[in-house]
Design brief:
The complex is a heterodimer. Chain A is α+β, with helices and mostly antiparallel strands. Chain A is 30% helix and 25% strand. Chain A is built from 14 helices and 25 strands. In chain A, α3 packs across α12. Chain B has two domains: 157 residues, no CATH class; 159 residues, no CATH class. In chain B, α1 runs antiparallel to α5, α6 packs antiparallel against α8 and α13 runs antiparallel to α14. The longest helix of chain B has 30 residues. The model of chain B has no long low-confidence stretch (mean pLDDT 90). Classes of the chains: A alpha+beta, B mainly alpha. The interface between A and B is medium-sized, with 27 and 29 residues.
């Protein structure tokens, strides 16, 4: 096996510096060098089989309408983050989440941040995810974001940037946990030798937070996980989390609201529900308030929620805080609410509503990534360095027609990590999504996260919906 | 501690086990008929007819045309997408129900169903069934179903979910036993005093996993009345009608323990009448017509019970 792939001089590689293997990766490198290609391929196949047998798959439909199940690719070589780097990430995310929660509490109540001119009112008013229906709501412990997935990338010198905040229904945490379980099986010695921090307590921490949000002061509140159903691409994760926390996995049709109280339909009659960890987007939660033709939600749910008879996790309306245009103001939020300097940097972001910034972007489209403010999962994104002239022209027209709907950011060369591809180490770009939990006792982050990999050579798009894969992430102590 | 169960999930677990039991019974019948097809018996007037008659929607003419066509039957029963009751489609349906109740079934059970699903969807399977590998495939599937039952018994908690799954399984098994019995008694006009030999009855007994027990329990000819005793009234035979009804009764008892609804009482009475009907039938003096009636009436009453049971517990939409 080739020991050191060719490095990008303008980028940061997690395993190699120009002087060779970084110290945190030495044992991993040694293990890999001691294995021949056949053994490595065997381990890669072992991991793939394990994902397949557990049903950690998504379905691809061919011309004959026969579904073929595929796994989300898992690369067996772990990504390592040192304790020093992790501390920066952890404190930075805690700070950010604290500010975002204060922002949501403020924006759905007093709106001081607008009154003091920190954030333009027009930006909030034009945000499609600002939910007027929950204005004035009081949520338990003033927590709106109970679970957040913060996407981080590393620049050319290894510095961390926040790429985006996921504050609605962040997914992928089951992969963080399952990836570790697979690693235990394929590299037990290597894992033990590296003193890797545990991530397995995540479901317990989360369950405790869910219980603490119950509107009824009872010892055993009924906490449920609301899923759109078995055809949802994240259904595996929903079942995984429900099983890990020992809570019922419900669909909208299993719930009913009576007199502003939510019940689930059981074989012995109706049973009151106290807390709903919902994996449905806001607009599908309640057909009486949002999409009237949707059957995924529960009629009357928002009314019960506003009455305080049921807690929803995450709270309704969080989309206003992870809107890509609002993202640019998070550093200002941190200064405004916490009177602190942001620990984690934002990627420089240009608002297309701002004529000056728009002209700047238009003049340098080849080095920009254009993103739709209300899209995620890699959809609605134009990479300036890969797009054709026609695509760039179309992007300019779309921006000019609806500038609020777009932002632009300079293309940052994401850091790379070696992946096992065709039996050889090849560098691929990665990002990192740690999962933060916010409860009455503050913010807790399990030391780990999901490393997503752009498996296509040179690609910077890591989303699983766009052909990305994942790696186990080790925070070494 | 009392645990509530979502009606939808209970429904899913009930049907998961019904589909798996159907698959199990069908594979056992297929295995029996396939292996016996290598013996060119002179009195084999049915071939795959009992299998095709109960487990498929084929018309009588199609069944007659294909009752000795092993190649067609293997593919049609195991992996034909158009056959709603093929092993492949039943496993797909079972897995769908398992997915919907994944938080209530064990990881081990889910992974077993899931790997069976992937095996059934492998593109090479239909081709392999045309080769000498066919018997190996049927044997593997039979073992997979045995393993399913083992995993079910060893890993699943004995709560409400277990009750619903067990009731589903035994309703399905009871219907299979009755239908297979009808398939072998109907051609001889339910003649209990006939002299069909063991070669005739072993097909039925092997299809119901009861051949060895029969040999151990009953001596010599005539068989016609003894086979009825085994498949309907023998409490030691796990596929007999009375055994399955008794188990259903036991699990109903658990389900109804805390249920004071009048509908629950009605349903329990309804099932009690059905069970008593079989239990108090005197098989020593059973006439040919009575045998036919017992089988027909039991099927009709069990189907009605199954419908009413679903209405009571699974009305969640």
């Amino acid at each position: 096996m080739e020991s050191m792939p060719k490095l990008n001089p303008n980028g940061w590689d997690e395993m190699f510096s120009s002087k060779g293997v970084r110290s945190s990766y030495r044992q991993v490198m040694q293990t890999l060098q001691n294995l021949n290609q056949e053994r490595l391929n065997h381990k890669q196949n072992q991991a793939a089989d394990s994902f397949m047998n557990q049903g950690i798959t998504f379905t691809v439909y061919g011309d004959d309408n026969q579904g073929i199940e595929r796994i989300f690719p898992f690369d067996i070589i772990p990504r390592i983050i040192t304790q020093k780097d992790w501390l920066e990430v952890e404190t930075g995310i805690k700070q950010r989440l604290k500010a975002l929660n204060l922002f949501l509490e403020d924006i759905y109540n007093e709106q001081q941040i607008i009154k003091e001119g920190i954030i333009p009112a027009s930006l909030i008013a034009s945000c499609p995810h600002y939910i007027q229906e929950v204005h004035g709501i009081k949520v338990p412990h003033n927590i709106h974001v109970h679970i957040a997935g913060i996407d981080l990338i590393r620049g050319a010198k290894g510095e961390f940037y926040v790429l985006e905040d996921n504050l609605r229904c962040p997914s992928g945490v089951s992969y963080m946990l399952e990836n570790r379980e697979i690693t235990k099986r394929i590299f037990p010695k290597m894992l033990a030798a590296n003193n890797v921090s545990m991530v397995g307590n995540y479901p317990m921490l989360f369950h405790n937070i869910l219980i603490s949000l119950s509107p009824r002061n009872i010892s055993n509140p009924n906490v449920v996980l609301l899923t759109p159903g078995i055809y949802n691409s994240a259904y595996y994760e929903h079942t995984f989390l429900a099983r890990q926390m020992g809570i019922p996995l419900v669909e909208g049709r299993d719930l009913v609201v009576n007199n502003n109280v939510v019940y689930m339909k059981t074989t012995s009659g109706l049973h009151r529900v106290d807390v709903i960890y919902r994996r449905l987007d806001d607009e599908y939660l309640d057909p009486l308030v949002f999409k009237p033709d949707s059957t995924l939600g529960v009629p009357g749910l928002i009314s019960a929620y506003k009455q305080g008879n049921v807690a929803l996790v995450n709270a309704v309306g969080n989309g206003v805080a992870d809107d890509k245009a609002v993202y640019a103001y998070v550093p200002d939020m941190i200064k405004y609410y916490l009177n602190e300097e942001p620990i984690l940097k934002n990627v420089p972001t240009y608002q297309m509503e701002n004529l000056e910034e728009r002209e700047l972007v238009f003049a340098d489209m080849g080095n920009m990534v254009i993103k739709e403010t209300n899209q995620s999962g890699g959809y609605g994104m134009v990479m300036g360095n890969k797009a054709t002239d026609k695509e760039l022209k179309n992007a300019k027209i779309a921006i000019a027609n609806n500038p609020r709907n777009f932002i632009a950011q300079p293309i940052i060369q994401l850091s790379t990590v070696p992946c096992l591809i065709d039996g050889q180490l090849k560098l691929r770009h990665v990002d990192f999504r740690p999962y933060a939990l916010c409860g009455p006792n503050g913010v807790e982050i399990v030391p780990g996260g999901l490393t997503r990999v752009a498996l296509t050579e040179g690609s910077l798009v890591v989303n699983s919906s766009q052909g990305g894969g994942s790696k186990d992430t080790w925070i070494v102590r | 501690m009392k645990v509530n169960m979502l009606s939808r999930v209970a429904d899913g677990m009930y049907w998961l086990n019904r589909y798996m039991e159907r698959t199990d019974g069908m594979l056992l019948t297929l295995n029996t008929s396939y292996i016996l097809s290598f013996d060119k018996e002179t009195n084999d007037c049915q071939g795959y007819k009992p299998l095709l008659g109960y487990y498929t929607d084929l018309s009588p003419k199609q069944i007659t045309d294909s009752q000795y066509d092993t190649n067609f039957v293997l593919k049609y029963i195991i992996c034909d997408n158009q056959n709603q009751n093929s092993v492949k489609n039943l496993v797909i349906k079972a897995r769908e129900n398992a997915r919907g109740s994944q938080d209530k079934i064990t990881k081990e059970l889910w992974e077993h169903i899931n790997s069976l699903y992937h095996y059934m969807n492998s593109p090479e399977l239909p081709k392999k069934l045309e080769t000498y590998e066919a018997l190996g495939i049927i044997t593997k599937l039979n073992k997979d179903l045995l393993l399913y039952n083992g995993i079910l018994h060893v890993t699943m908690p004995r709560g409400l979910g277990w009750c619903f799954m067990s009731i589903g399984k035994h309703i399905e098994r009871c219907l299979q036993t009755i239908s297979m019995t009808q398939a072998y008694y109907s051609p001889i006009n339910y003649n209990l005093d006939g002299d069909e030999d063991l070669l005739y009855w072993r097909r039925l007994l092997l299809s119901l996993s009861g051949y060895e027990l029969y040999l151990k329990s009953y001596s010599n000819i005539p068989h016609n009345r003894k086979v009825v005793q085994q498949v309907i009234f023998n409490r030691d035979f796990a596929h007999s009608v009375i055994y399955t009804l008794e188990l259903i009764d036991t699990y109903l008892e658990t389900l109804f323990k805390d249920n004071k609804l009048s509908e629950a009482r009605t349903l329990q009475n309804q099932f009690g009448r059905l069970k008593s009907y079989v239990e108090f039938t005197d098989y020593h003096h059973l006439t040919n017509q009575q045998l036919k009636d017992v089988l027909n009436n039991t099927t009709a009453q069990l189907v009605q019970f199954s419908t009413d049971f679903s209405k009571l517990f699974f009305s969640y939409t």
